[in-house]
Amino acid sequence: MVFDHALFNSHPRFWGYVTSPAAPIGILGDLLASAANPNVGSWTLAPMATEIEAQSVRWIAELIGYPNNCEGLLVSGGNMANFVGFLAARANRADWDIRKMGLRHSDAKNLRVYASSETHTWIQKAADLFGLGTDAISWLPVDHQERMDTQVLRERLKQDRARGMTPLLVVGSAGTVSTGAVDPLAEIAAICREHDVWFHVDGAYGAFAAAAVPAEFEGLQESDSVAVDPHKWLYSPLEAGCILIRQAEALRNTFSYHPPYYSFDTEVLNYFDLGPQNSRGFRALKVWLAFRHVGRSGYVQMIGDHIRLAQALYRKLASHPDFEPLTQGLSITTFRYFPAELKSRPDSDRVETYLHRLNEELLNRLEKSGEAFLSKAMLGAKFALRLCIVNFRTSLEDVEALPEIVVRLGRQVNQELRAGAL
What is the pTM of this model? Predict the structure, then answer.
């Protein structure tokens, strides 16, 4: 029943969400990890599993160009990795002992975090769960490339300081969910140094692309923390997220407690000191095995291929009269089905309303067809079809087949909806 009713996200034309197929070596890794069943909370309970996780964290850091002497650990996914970065910023940058006094301190109400309007909703969950409240988020506008406006960030920080606020954390995106945009990380890093604010990068989807196109991620290595998801672009089976922290001891300063009933050796690596969990599964084996299997060069090749495939689709759409390509970033391409006969109509407002309805219904038909699976993105007021490739089974043939599939279904929907709509 599980297989019969699965979404089949390992299919080569599954491009709807940032969910990769599971690498076969990772499937084996999960089987072996479950059979051994170590508790990777302390070194004593899982000595080899602990060392394998530590090595996997170093390899992840090296792959994206982050200092490999950083602290880090594997967690369940992007939300939890970002949460840990958020908590590390809170514990290490607050002006009082926040772990002891919490948010009862008089300055707690003045804490502010900064993120662009394209930041994933984890930031709202974090502000909510960890006591700041969502009103503590200062939302920043983006430019025409969907990247954070750093001039507004600089001005907002100055204004908030003058008002008695305490800037705590700035979040930069290394691959936004909707379009794959990468914020100007080097500029953000410089601004954060100037204002003594923790700089966290949400790279859950996109940061691994730093291995293939490093020029787009300049400044990533200067951040205080980075969240990445091996179960996205490293093709690990769910669950596998990772948080990297530049500052030594920052995670211990955030999470470590040593009650008398903990009789573990403090001279070795105990992961319960670095994160929110005590009991932890052996997530690292599937990550470690995949690194041993394909190596850095294999990941660079596959991630680069996915970016090139998304770029090839964008070019093909641009040459077709019935499409409007909208954005292309990393392995994400967004576009609209836009029948050629509608492009010259003068009643643009009515056409825009109709295109929203047309593409919304087209997406439903496409998903039900079983021929390909896409998702949506809202680009301003435009309803866009969104393709994201993190699938090592996807070929150029698959990508080149998509436009004709969309046109065939789009013409059917257009014919049904046009009567009385325009």
Answer: 0.95
